[in-house]
Amino acid sequence: MSTTAGYQRIVCLTEETTETLYLLGQADRIVGISGFTVRPARARKEKPRVSAFTSAKLDRILDLSPDLVLGFSDLQADIAADLIRAGIEVHVFNQRTVAGILTMIRHLGAMVEATVAAAELIESLQAHIESVAEAGRALPYRPWVYFQEWDDPQICGIRWVSELIEIAGGQDCFSDLARAPDAASRIISDSGVVAARSPEVIVGSWCGKKFRPERLYSDPILADVPAVQRDALYEIKSPLILQPGPAALTDGLDALQCIIKEVALRFAR
C-alpha cells in the first residue's frame, strides 16, 4: 500500500507500536523510537531514540516534526501533556489484555491506512493463540504459576501475562491481582503470600535486569514451595512478554508454553 495517506511522521514512545508498524510494512513512517526498543533489532539502527519510558527528549522529538506521537498508559501522561501543549497530536494506547493488544493493532493499522495488513496480522496472531491454547488443553496437568514481574517489591504479572499463562495451559496463582491495571495494586506484601498460594512454577521477568532465582531459593519462607522444591524456576526476558504487542502473543506465549509443558509433564508423573 502506498504511504501517501495517513500519518507520515510517527514517533513511538514504546516498543510495541514500533514492532507493529514494522510488521504492517509501515516502518518508513517512523521517525523516532524508544531507547528501550529491541524489536525489531533493525529499528535501533534505523531510527533515532528519543525517549525512555517515563521521560522523553522533548526538543529532539519536536525537531523531528512528527504529525503523530504514540504512547502507552498513564505512565506517559506527563510526556503526552508536554507534547500536546507543544501542538503535537498524541494518541496514548492503554491495552492491558490479549484482546486489547489485538484492538491496538487494528486501530494502529487504521491510523496508517493499512487495515488489510492489520487484519491479516491479527488473524495470524489469533491462529497462533488458538494453536497454543489447543496444546494447553491437551496437557495432563495444569500447573500453578507465579509470574514475578519485579523482585523488590515483589510484583506479580499484569493481566495479559495472566491470560497468556492460562492460554498456555497453566493457572495463574495471582489472577485476582492481575486484573489491576497498575503495578502498585499488584505488589505482593511478603513471601508468605506467595508460599500460601503454593506455586508449582515460578517465572521471573524482571523488566530491565536479569532474573536471579538464587534470591528465591535462599528465601526460607519459600523453602517448601513446590516450585522451589522441584527446581521449577525459569526466566523469560522482559522484552518478549512485558511489551503489550505482537511479541507477547508470539515469542512470549511460546516461551510460557515451553515452560508450562515441561512442568506439567514432570508434575503429572
UniProtKB/TrEMBL annotation:
Transmembrane segments: none annotated. It comes from the Bacteria. Residues 9-264 form the Fe/B12 periplasmic-binding domain. Signal peptide: none annotated. CDD domains: BtuF (cd01144). Gene3D superfamilies: Nitrogenase molybdenum iron protein domain (3.40.50.1980). Pfam families: Peripla_BP_2 (PF01497). This is ABC transporter substrate-binding protein. It comes from Spiribacter salilacus.
